[in-house]
# Entry
Amino acid sequence: MTISKEQKRKNIKKEVNYLEQKEDIRTLLDKVGYENIFRYMVEDLDHIDNISNTQSIYLFEIISMLEKVLEIYPRLDHA
# Structure
């Protein structure tokens, strides 16, 4: 499968945006910690209205994975 020029541009733009914000992300993580970021993400994403559509199923999977991360991460942090 080939990627269109427009998709390549979008991917490059995403990467540049990430690199520009990387230090801000690092500063935020140092300030509030990974666990609080994960917890916030679960709370922010946890608004599933209709589990029957594909998007909601994906959202449910993301939330489930983040909850698993919240369960496991503290064990790694203290290793």
